[in-house]
């Protein structure tokens, strides 16, 4: 574990505080889901796509449990299970995979994009899914395009599954010289509709999304495309889009009223719109958001918050909960700190904030027990033990599945943190 006192050049350039934040770099035992979990929200986003995990029965149980799919449902994901013969090299795994894909496409003719999702077992036996995807695409185009990405949990946290999936789609995007705004990251359809409506009111008519609602309706990208990230964990996707010539808009993330305002203003500024011209269009939504958050501020203000690393949403959430709800930040953990994507968020955190990058579960739990925070945001595997020790917890994975971006959801986001505190208070009484 390394303790580093530093002030980012990127943070200072963005107008942030000159005083350094405290950064703990930790390496050790981790407690996170694997990237296969991201299939749960990606398959809902693109109804004409199918996600085929190439893995074990454990992979199949994980995804089905996370999605809550009943046995009689017809989901848009499945698992090509690697058996003992495949793992031992007694059978040609590529031939077996081709056979499973043929059966799947014959049974599900509505599939237009097939994602081959790598797992820990497929990576251990060095199954080349990239070549398999190219081979199967040649065979099934133009009806079905086959794309591959890694959802393995060996080196990644669960939200990076979406990052890998979107990065795999970037080479397929058509080229365009037209000026446009590209919203990158999966959001609930109703949230996306609300935000796109605000952009249209500002006169930004060419607004596209990645991932699209239809997997074959790929957004164009080019040198006049501005990238606005909706999720903070899309490092590989952002750099892949920049490699296609697109320009990244530096902005906080649309969590809470102030985060959403800064996010929209950053996009508007990238197209030459002045802040005083943008503000009147946002004022009504801002007022609604502030009123919704105010209902929970009394429950949250002054409460001590400890965020363990899990989803990479931790830093934007910490900014929202401190800035708009008055919570006191004891420690903000994140699995991976991308300073380029987090500069605007780091600039708004108090200088006394301790940020931990990476995970060493035992040491972090020792700090939790020593500080006894009012609320701990953590993964499912740590929540129940901490609850048994008398601490209120919030599952971080719930924040990925819930619609939390934008003005209309700001109150719902605050309520998600007020709810476990209210539950703990009732139990204590």
UniProtKB/TrEMBL annotation:
<protein>
    <recommendedName>
        <fullName>Light-independent protochlorophyllide reductase subunit N</fullName>
        <ecNumber>1.3.7.7</ecNumber>
    </recommendedName>
</protein>
<dbReference type="GO" id="GO:0046872">
    <property type="term" value="F:metal ion binding"/>
</dbReference>
<keyword id="KW-0479">Metal-binding</keyword>
<comment type="pathway">
    <text>Porphyrin-containing compound metabolism; chlorophyll biosynthesis (light-independent).</text>
</comment>
<keyword id="KW-0560">Oxidoreductase</keyword>
<feature type="domain" description="Nitrogenase/oxidoreductase component 1">
    <location>
        <begin position="40"/>
        <end position="419"/>
    </location>
</feature>
<keyword id="KW-0602">Photosynthesis</keyword>
<dbReference type="InterPro" id="IPR050293">
    <property type="entry name" value="LIPOR_BchN/ChlN"/>
</dbReference>
<dbReference type="GO" id="GO:0051539">
    <property type="term" value="F:4 iron, 4 sulfur cluster binding"/>
</dbReference>
<keyword id="KW-0067">ATP-binding</keyword>
<dbReference type="GO" id="GO:0016636">
    <property type="term" value="F:oxidoreductase activity, acting on the CH-CH group of donors, iron-sulfur protein as acceptor"/>
</dbReference>
<comment type="similarity">
    <text>Belongs to the BchN/ChlN family.</text>
</comment>
<keyword id="KW-0411">Iron-sulfur</keyword>
<dbReference type="GO" id="GO:0005524">
    <property type="term" value="F:ATP binding"/>
</dbReference>
<comment type="subunit">
    <text>Protochlorophyllide reductase is composed of three subunits; ChlL, ChlN and ChlB. Forms a heterotetramer of two ChlB and two ChlN subunits.</text>
</comment>
<keyword id="KW-0408">Iron</keyword>
<feature type="binding site">
    <location>
        <position position="59"/>
    </location>
    <ligand>
        <name>[4Fe-4S] cluster</name>
    </ligand>
</feature>
<feature type="binding site">
    <location>
        <position position="34"/>
    </location>
    <ligand>
        <name>[4Fe-4S] cluster</name>
    </ligand>
</feature>
<dbReference type="GO" id="GO:0016730">
    <property type="term" value="F:oxidoreductase activity, acting on iron-sulfur proteins as donors"/>
</dbReference>
<feature type="binding site">
    <location>
        <position position="120"/>
    </location>
    <ligand>
        <name>[4Fe-4S] cluster</name>
    </ligand>
</feature>
<dbReference type="InterPro" id="IPR005970">
    <property type="entry name" value="Protochl_reductN"/>
</dbReference>
<keyword id="KW-0547">Nucleotide-binding</keyword>
<keyword id="KW-0004">4Fe-4S</keyword>
<comment type="function">
    <text>Component of the dark-operative protochlorophyllide reductase (DPOR) that uses Mg-ATP and reduced ferredoxin to reduce ring D of protochlorophyllide (Pchlide) to form chlorophyllide a (Chlide). This reaction is light-independent. The NB-protein (ChlN-ChlB) is the catalytic component of the complex.</text>
</comment>
<dbReference type="GO" id="GO:0019685">
    <property type="term" value="P:photosynthesis, dark reaction"/>
</dbReference>
<dbReference type="InterPro" id="IPR000510">
    <property type="entry name" value="Nase/OxRdtase_comp1"/>
</dbReference>
<dbReference type="Pfam" id="PF00148">
    <property type="entry name" value="Oxidored_nitro"/>
</dbReference>
<dbReference type="GO" id="GO:0036068">
    <property type="term" value="P:light-independent chlorophyll biosynthetic process"/>
</dbReference>
<keyword id="KW-0149">Chlorophyll biosynthesis</keyword>
């Amino acid at each position: 574990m390394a303790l580093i006192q530093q002030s980012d050049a990127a943070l200072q350039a963005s107008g942030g505080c000159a005083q350094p934040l405290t950064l703990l770099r930790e390496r050790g035992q981790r407690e996170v889901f694997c990237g296969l979990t991201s299939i749960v929200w990606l398959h809902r986003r693109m109804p004409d796509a199918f996600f085929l995990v190439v893995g074990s029965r454990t992979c199949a149980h994980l995804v089905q449990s996370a999605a809550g799919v009943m046995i009689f449902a017809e989901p848009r994901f499945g698992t090509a299970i690697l058996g003992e013969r495949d793992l031992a090299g007694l059978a040609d795994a590529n031939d077996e995979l081709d056979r499973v894909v043929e059966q799947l496409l014959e049974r599900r003719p509505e599939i237009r994009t097939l994602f081959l999702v790598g797992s820990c077992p497929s990576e251990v036996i060095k199954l080349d899914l990239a070549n398999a995807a190219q081979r199967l695409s040649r065979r099934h185009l133009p009806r079905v395009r086959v794309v591959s990405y890694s959802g393995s949990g060996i080196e990644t946290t669960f939200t990076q599954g979406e990052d890998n999936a979107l990065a795999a789609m970037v080479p397929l995007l058509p080229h365009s010289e037209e000026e446009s705004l590209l919203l990158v990251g999966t959001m609930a359809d109703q949230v996306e509709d609300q935000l796109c409506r605000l952009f249209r009111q500002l006169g930004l008519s060419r607004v596209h999304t990645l991932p699209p609602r239809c997997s074959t309706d790929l957004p164009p990208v080019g040198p006049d495309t501005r990238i606005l990230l909706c999720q903070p964990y899309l490092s590989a996707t952002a750099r892949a889009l920049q490699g296609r010539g697109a320009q990244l808009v530096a902005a906080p993330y649309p969590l809470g009223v102030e985060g959403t305002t800064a996010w929209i203003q950053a996009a508007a500024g990238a197209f030459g719109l002045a802040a005083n011209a943008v503000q009147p269009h946002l004022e009504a939504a801002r007022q609604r958001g502030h009123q919704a958050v105010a209902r929970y501020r009394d429950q949250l203000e002054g409460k001590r918050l400890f965020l363990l690393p899990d989803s990479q949403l931790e830093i934007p959430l910490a900014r929202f909960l401190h800035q708009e709800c008055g919570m006191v930040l004891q420690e903000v953990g994140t699995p991976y700190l991308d300073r380029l994507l987090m500069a605007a968020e780091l600039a708004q955190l108090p200088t006394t904030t301790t940020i931990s990058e990476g995970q060493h579960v035992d040491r972090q739990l020792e700090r939790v027990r020593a500080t006894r925070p009012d609320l701990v945001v953590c993964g499912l595997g740590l929540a129940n033990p901490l609850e048994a020790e008398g601490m209120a917890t919030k599952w971080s994975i719930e924040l990925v599945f819930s619609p939390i971006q934008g003005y209309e959801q700001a109150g719902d986001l605050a309520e998600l943190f007020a709810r476990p505190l209210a539950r703990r208070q009732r139990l204590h009484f």
